[in-house]
Design brief:
The complex is a heterodimer of chains A (about 450) and B (about 170). By secondary structure, chain A is α+β, with helices and mostly antiparallel strands. Helices cover about 75% and strands about 5% of the residues of chain A. Chain B has helices at about 1-20, 20-60, 65-85, 90-120, 125-170. The chains are: A alpha+beta (about 450), B mainly alpha (about 170).
Chain lengths: ~450, ~170
């Protein structure tokens, strides 16, 4: 192994020795080339130095010139700054001068803007705008303008206010488009009463300023109010009465939210309907009683005039028949027979009267039941929503009260009718019970003579 | 004349604050007093004549003790009593009805209070005040109407009973 390494090292040293002998000529050439180059480099250096020296003088001149320019600009800056300050002062002076020159006139423009804004609010919502649309635009322009309004605009403001004032005292008729509740549009003749109400053939109308449309009220107020509107509309001359809403529609709108009697009635719910049924049945019974008792009384009266011919169609006649059958019996037997006959008649006469009385007593009790149910519902609402909103509670409370009212309303006529029917039946019973015996006694006396 | 107009106007404003139920109270009161005045008039001028006739007729009878005579006497008393007591039930009913009508006014007034509450909330007591006056005034009117009737109707009742008892006493069995 060691022998092998020695061989390799020997071979390498031989190769290096051969290469060094081959490059000896090239190095000589290189040396000469460096020498010649040093001479030419020195030449170039000298030339460049001369060039730089020449340029230096030029640059000096340029620097001088630039410095001079800087100086000039600085001077100008100082001058302009001074001038600017001067102008600021002048401007302030001029502004003060302008203010003094405007004087109260400036205030006037502020006032006119405020007045225009106020007038815009009043006029765009006024029903006069239904007749003369588009009056608000000019006012809006004045109210929102940044600059001083022109004379024409001021005149326009004056004109708008004057129109409103004049029209508020006038009743005028005009034709306009009415947007109905179902969205359809129709052209109608409308009467405007001042700035208060719009009236047409169909009642009161409303002016919606947001969309600039004339609309009928969602629900016309109570009959006696809306009737005056249509009768007013149809009057050609002379005087007629009319309900005017001085709040310019607010009261009419409230009126539309008011419940009608029918709506109130339906608020009573099932209990309310039951009370109504009770009332109707009670009144029907009373009616039947009044008719029957009336006919019985009249038949008895006719019988009283004609005692000799007893008629079977009335209680008195039937009593007379009993008397005729027992004419020859003694007084005691006759009395017993008559009592028996009267006892048979009595239920027919006072039938149903106690029922009316009972109904009259039940009706307020049912009202009370409704009250209790209503209160239960109210407390349920309170449990769910708390007492914060009286509007939620009020609904059930009105159910409670409506049934109470219905109970009383049903009871009152029933009581009255009961007293009438009871009076009649009592009189018929008196006739049978106390007076028929007397009549028979009179007949007996006459016959015995 | 002016006084009358003022009176009518004050009645009208009273009814306006009290609500329509006052008409019913007024109707009941009117009917009650018409019936009562008729009764007083009957007791004062018609009845005495009738009573004297009956007494004279009874005194003219020869037979006053038999069963027939008793029945005839009962009949005359019953007829007289019927005339005496006519409409007394209605008068008493009307007296009893007046406070009930007032109560109806209370309830309708409260309904209008709650109606206002449901629409406007409880913010403005002034709006509710009209309903409250509609609740209280008919109650008061009903009470006053009933009170005005209670005294006279009970007096009337006593008078009628007395008249009947006197008539019975005036027809003795000989």
């Amino acid at each position: 192994m060691k022998k092998m390494i020695n061989y390799v090292m020997l071979a390498a040293s031989m190769t290096v020795g051969m290469a060094a002998s081959a490059n000896a000529n090239d190095l000589q050439k290189l040396l000469e080339k460096v020498k010649s180059d040093r001479i030419s480099e020195a030449k170039i250096d000298k030339k460049r130095e001369a060039e730089f020296t020449a340029a230096r003088a030029d640059k000096q001149a340029l620097l001088k010139k630039a410095k001079a320019t800087l100086k000039a600009e600085q001077d100008r800056n100082a001058r302009l700054t001074k001038e600017y300050a001067q102008n600021e002062i002048t401007l302030a002076q001029k502004e003060v001068e302008l203010d003094t020159a405007q004087g109260t006139l400036g205030e006037m423009f502020g006032v006119s803007r405020a007045a225009a804004a106020d007038a815009y609010g009043a006029i765009s919502t006024s029903i006069v705008s239904a007749e003369y649309p588009g009056r608000g635009d000019v006012l809006n322009k004045i109210a929102n303008a940044k600059e001083i309004p022109a004379l024409e605009q001021l005149e326009e403001l004056w004109f708008a206010l004057q129109t409103e004032m004049t029209q508020s005292g006038e009743i005028s008729k005009f034709t306009a488009e009415v947007t109905n509740l179902d969205g359809t549009k129709s052209t109608e003749t409308i009467t405007r009463i001042g700035t208060f109400n719009l009236v047409s053939d169909n009642g009161y109308l409303n002016y919606n300023d947001e969309v600039g449309q004339i609309q009928p009220l969602a629900k016309q107020p109570a009959g006696y109010i809306s009737d005056t509107a249509s009768s007013f509309f149809n009057t050609a001359s002379g005087y007629t009465e009319l309900y005017v809403d001085p709040s310019r529609g607010a009261i009419l709108t409230l009126e539309t939210r008011k419940k009608t009697l029918e709506e109130f009635y339906h608020q009573g719910g099932t209990v309310g309907y039951a009370i109504t049924v009770l009332l109707i049945i009670g009144l029907l019974i009373a009616l039947e009683r009044i008719i029957v008792l009336g006919s019985v009384a009249s038949k008895m009266k006719a019988q009283q005039k004609n005692l000799s011919q007893p008629n079977e169609n009335n209680p008195l006649g039937r009593l007379l028949v009993v008397y005729n059958e027992n004419k020859n019996a003694d007084a005691e037997t006759l009395e017993l027979k008559l009592d028996e006959a009267i006892l048979r008649e009595t239920p027919k006469v006072d039938r149903g009267i106690n029922l009316i009385k009972m109904f009259a007593a039940i009706a307020p009790l049912m009202g009370l039941l409704g009250t209790v149910i209503g209160m239960i519902l109210t407390f349920q609402t309170i449990t769910l929503f708390g007492t914060g909103d009286p509007k939620i509670m009020a609904g059930n409370i009105s159910l409670a009260l409506v049934t109470t009212a219905l109970g009383l309303i049903a009871a009152l006529p029933l009581i009255l009718v009961h007293s009438i029917v009871a009076g009649r039946s009592k009189s018929v019973l008196h006739k049978l019970d106390e007076q028929s015996a007397g009549l028979i006694a009179e007949i007996a006396e006459k016959e015995s003579k | 004349m002016l006084f009358l107009i003022e009176l009518i106007e004050s009645v009208r404003s009273f009814i306006a604050t009290g609500g329509n139920v006052l008409y019913f109270v007024a109707f009941a009161l009117l009917l009650m007093w018409i019936l009562m005045i008729e009764r007083y008039w009957f007791l004062a001028s018609v009845y005495p004549k009738m009573r004297d006739d009956i007494i004279a007729k009874w005194d003219a009878r020869a037979d006053t003790t038999s069963w027939y005579a008793h029945r005839i006497r009962d009949t005359w008393i019953s007829e007289a009593a019927e005339l005496l007591e006519r409409n007394m039930i209605t008068i008493k009913t009307l007296v009893a009805m007046c406070p009930l009508i007032g109560l109806l006014g209370t309830v309708t007034g409260m309904i209008s209070v709650f109606e206002t509450m449901a629409q406007q909330g409880t913010g403005n007591p002034r709006l509710m005040a009209s309903g409250i006056s509609m609740a209280t005034i008919p109650t008061m009117a009903g009470m006053v109407a009933a009170l005005s009737g209670v005294f006279f109707s009970s007096r009337l009742d006593a008078k009628v009973k007395l008249a009947k008892a006197k008539l019975i006493d005036s027809l003795p069995h000989h």
